Amino acid sequence: MWSEPSPAPGVVLFDTAIGRCAIGWAAAGIVTVQLPGASDVATRARASRYTGAATAGSPPTPVVAAVRGIRVLLDGEAVDLGFVELDFEWVPEFHRRVYEVARTIPPGRTMTYGEVATRLGEPGAARAVGQALGRNPFAIVVPCHRVLAAGGKLGGFSARGGVHTKRRMLALEGAPAGGPPTLFDPADR
Q: Is 21 among the residues known to form the active site?
């Protein structure tokens, strides 16, 4: 992936329309993209679990390009992040397949967990798809927020803020956001 010499593992925080995110890389490529946590320390710590490094001097060129693309997308511009190369080496095979399908969903569009499972050739695996997306280490680049529950309902979202964050990200992209909030939507109480 790297056109320059393999960099030392690292993590950097960067500002976006939804808060400070983190991106981490190792010698083989980008290994994580994290949504904002409760604090910069928490966000950096989550990313560091994937890299073993807490900070870095200067991110390699592909990381800089990925950060730029993520910022543009979260500013509401329909950008395809398919150019961002991810290091799937350590990702379980089923998860990798789910992430590859999720990456085909363009900004402003959504699919259901069941549709992803059907596209994988495993129509009964909607729950397993949801579990794989709940463990997505590449938030935004693998757009798990674009995958909804049956009937276009938001379903779950493991990032800080839960479905409220998912709804906000979908709104930034101009996608249907799973209908209006309900009395039972815990993120909106």
A: no
